[in-house]
Amino acid sequence: MSKTEKQAPDRTAATARPDNGGGTTATGVSRRRLLGTAGAAGATGLVLGAGGGAAGYAATRPEEPAALTTIGATEAMFHGKHQPGITTPLQARGHLVAFDLVAGAGRKEAAALLRRWSAVAKELMAGRAAAGGADGPGHDTGIALDAGPSSLTVTFGFGRTFFARTGLADRLPAALDPLPVFSADALDARRSGGDLWAQIGADDALVAFHALRALQKEAAGTARVRWQMNGFNRTPGATARPMTTRNLMGQIDGTGNPKPTDEDFDRRVFVPASPGKPQEWMEGGSYAVVRRIRMLLDDWEKLPVEHQERVIGRRKADGAPLSGGTETTEMDLDKAGPDGRPVIPGNAHARISSPEKNGGAAMLRRPFSYHDGIAEDGAPDAGLLFICWQADPFRGFVPVQRKLDRGDALSPFLRHEASAVFAVPGGAAAGEYVGQRLLES
């Protein structure tokens, strides 16, 4: 099965692009190695969602055209009510990068940069070459030649410091107020904050790096990289059936996430309309809390599995709550064992972080794992690039983290090493660039 998303009203979609019947895709020549005919050898792996479309490739290639796999063919839409990369299914590879505007760069320069970035992101997400932004010449590096879109998404956001530096302090949302200090924080200021932020995700490492490199090149002279982090998830198709991903502790991670089908999903995740108010430009947007959380894996892996399960409150094998059932069974927080104690301990991570224990506070977690090498003592520098999305971090992330900070059994095995919050505006309509409603208001 493809991880292609079906187009829904006002929702970002991912879909494999058909051609226009004339040998090239309807929106132009792709950078990918294009398909041969549907009856060609090797073409049987095409998903039906691809429409069976095939486009001719330059005759200078000596080898026979090869069919795109479902992973390479899947495309996310750039334009929409919301930016891509929020409700898009987890991708196998990710890059997070924050930029600071250079001295002398202000609102005009920032607008030109977002225009260029949006133009490049649109092309790359469609599987086409990055020919440079709308405001200047450029050339494609060739890093992702022959690859399909591979579910590439590029998402842009603004940090708190961006508003003063662009003369937009009166548009600064209260939701970007500094986060409280938490006891597990060991934050590196050099890897925190930032004027601008981009999240890149794809199911192919070269496609993801290609996008990262293109954004960096377009920023030259306007913004410099403040910090950059690399992440990964399980590759689609690596399991016999679609499954919730596991983190580096081996735990199924994301079971309790709100789902787009939930009645209150939009209210929890996306900013509502606020006509006439200073933050009306955030309509359809969301706030991303980004935390680099190091996992103390050597300590964690010394625990017996039964102890790990009590720390989390779920079975390691299948993610089911200790109160019984399957992964998707609701936790019975009142269930007691033969000893009279709760089967899900009072300090279990799943209990403390549950909406029931946080006044309904919820956030959409969409993380990447990371591994940045081995320290001199042999400990892995590895963990979670935690990214959560909500309509207001002070009603989503903050109350939950405060509760976890006061007694989560998992906390001794985690260290929060970097932190940032970004205002991620709604998606760009056709003909718009991301952030246009802010920068041209």
Automatic annotation (TrEMBL):
Keyword terms, alphabetized: Heme, Iron, Lyase, Metal-binding, Oxidoreductase, Peroxidase, Signal
EC number(s) from the headed UniProt entry: 1.11.1.-
GO cellular component: cell envelope
One Pfam family matching this protein: Dyp_perox_N
The keyword Iron appears for this protein: yes
Highest taxon listed in the record's lineage: Bacteria
Residues covered by the Dyp-type peroxidase C-terminal domain: 244-428
Keyword Glycosyltransferase attached: no
Region (Disordered): 1-31, 316-337
Signal peptide range: none
Coiled-coil stretches noted in the UniProt entry, renumbered to this chain: none
Cofactor, free-text remark: Binds 1 heme b (iron(II)-protoporphyrin IX) group non-covalently per subunit.
SUPFAM superfamilies in alphabetical order: Dimeric alpha+beta barrel
Transmembrane segments: none
Domain Dyp-type peroxidase N-terminal stretches: 83-233
Cofactor or coenzyme needed: heme b
Cell compartment(s), UniProt: Cell envelope
A GO term, aspect molecular function: ferrochelatase activity
Reaction(s) catalysed (UniProt annotation): heme b + 2 H(+) = protoporphyrin IX + Fe(2+)
InterPro entries, per database record: Dimeric_a/b-barrel, Dyp_perox_C, Dyp_perox_N, Dyp_peroxidase, EfeB/EfeN, TAT_signal
Function: Involved in the recovery of exogenous heme iron. Extracts iron from heme while preserving the protoporphyrin ring intact.
Family: Belongs to the DyP-type peroxidase family.
Listed name of the protein: Deferrochelatase
Classification of source organism: Bacteria, Bacillati, Actinomycetota, Actinomycetes, Kitasatosporales
Name of encoding gene: efeB
